[in-house]
Specification:
The chain has eight helices and ten strands. With about 230 residues, it is of the alpha/beta class. It folds into two domains: about 130 residues, Rossmann fold (3-Layer(aba) Sandwich); about 80 residues, Dihydrodipicolinate Reductase, domain 2. Strand 1, helix 1 and strand 2 form a beta-alpha-beta unit. The longest helix has 16 residues.
Amino acid sequence: MIAVGVIGITGRMGKILVDSIESNDELTLSGGISSQNIGKDLEKIVKCSDVIVDFSHHTAVLAAAKVAANHAVPLISGTTGLSANDFLQLRQCSQRIPLLYAANFSIGIQLIAAFIRRCAGVLKNFDFSILDKHHRHKKDAPSGTALFLAQQYEEIAKKSPQIVSLRCGNNFGEHVCDFCGEDETITVTHSVLNKRVFAVGALRCARWIVGKDPGFYGICDAIDFQ
């Protein structure tokens, strides 16, 4: 059994992670802590875990990463809204532990990312845009997923897409990607129907990362999309 510690355990994703861990025969919950109480019992939870899974706040994930690095415990994080400096600190921690970061742990989003890269290389005269729709309580805009998809396009096309963000209702997450040409438009949409999809992907990565060498990993390292 792999012992999993959860950072952000009282949040929406934290609660879903707990349910998913408890229903998985390969995993056991070693403990958890909320983003607000990150300084309390953090080291204790890390020390009794084989891997830490984080869906919290940028200040909480940095604290967790540093403690995890001190105790050689792998870390999985899906926290969004991170700055360039936050990522720099995570990469510094990954020199001592295996650390996997993904803005979105959905398998479908990873397949769309591959599709965007392919289209960006072929549809050179097409405009590309991303519509990012989430619930009214989501604080970061554009979403981490929208920025991730934009990065896939930018690396191939060498230019930035237009991103429009809407925060309304109770939408778990929807991203509409359009390649628009003079005579045709290609649209691909990903809609989250249940946030459990993120827990499934994150815990699949958690099982994979135990025993890996230190380094900064992505979801494509853990899951073969070929």
